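User: Before I run my own analysis I want an independent prediction to cross-check against. Here's the chain; please return only the C-alpha cells and, at the end, one sentence I can use as a sanity check.
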Amino acid sequence: MSTEGFLVAFDEEMLEYFRDMTDVLVGKCGISRREAVVRINERYAGKGMSVLEWNPMTHDFPEF
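Assistant: C-alpha cells:
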C-alpha cells in the first residue's frame, strides 16, 4: 500500500482520513501538499493504530 509520504502506521480508512486532512490543509491554510504531510507526520508519526482509533479527532471530519 502506498502511504504517500505519511509515516503513520494505519489502515486504508485512516489513509483516506489523512488524505482528506491534507486536502483541507492545502485548501484552507494555503500550504503545499508536502508541507501538509510533514505537519501530519510531526503530529502522528510513531503512534500506533490503537491510539489513532481511540482519538476523538478521528471521529470528526478532517476540517475540524
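Sanity check: Helices lie at 12-29, 33-44, 49-53.
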